[in-house]
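RECORD TYPE: protein structure
NAME: LytTR family transcriptional regulator
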Amino acid sequence: MKTRNFVVLTISIAVVLGLLIYWREYATRDQVALYHVVLWQIGIWMPWVLGFKILEQIIGKISKTKFGILLLIGTCITWVGLHFGWFFFISSNFSPYLGLPGSRFGVYRYFFIFWTLIDIGLIWFIIDKLKSVKDEELPPPLLFELTRGNNKYFCEPSQIHWLAAENYYTKLSTTEGVFVMRKPLKSFHDLLPQDMFRRIHRSTIINVNYVSELERGNGQNLEVIMKDGTRRKVSRNFVKEITLFFKDRTY
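PREDICTED:
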């Protein structure tokens, strides 16, 4: 949900409330101007744009912290309290109903029902909309369709041990066995998560989570030993990169 759309929503709420209050207080229409009531309501509800931006930031981080839900609830309660304080400040100084019979601090008692219900409704609406947007931003899970004979297997990246180019084909070693696909290695390299897969040779990509050992030979020669016992040679162009990568991953 864009900020501009929420500004339009906030102004619409303020205008509608202003009209309803003006219509409800028919006895004071000769003493109060409609535009004054509407401007008063806009002044009360516009700070909700700031509340929207705050909740947008909180919801964006809710999945990254252990206490995200508590932080969100605390923020909502705090914001409603601050909004009520703002409501009293604006009404006590700028309400068109100041000093009129039956009003106190420029408001009537039933006003509180309006403000409380709308505050709760706006919180629910914003959280629901922003969560929907965050869910839509999540990419769909990546699955590879592998075939062996007449059978089809669906493989997640985490199930792949290593990939090796063989002419126009790519061999994949997975938890379900070895498969061959008529696709170039580059097509897999562009799709696989970069934090999980590393190229160690022009024709080889490995899943770093399945590496058991790095074995040095003579000179700059380096081999990766996978947990299934497979040995894959590291090209000289990648020796330094792979060595530093695993050094940073270990304690």
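COMMENT: Residues 144-249 form a domain with the OB fold (Dihydrolipoamide Acetyltransferase, E2P) fold (CATH 2.40.50.1020).
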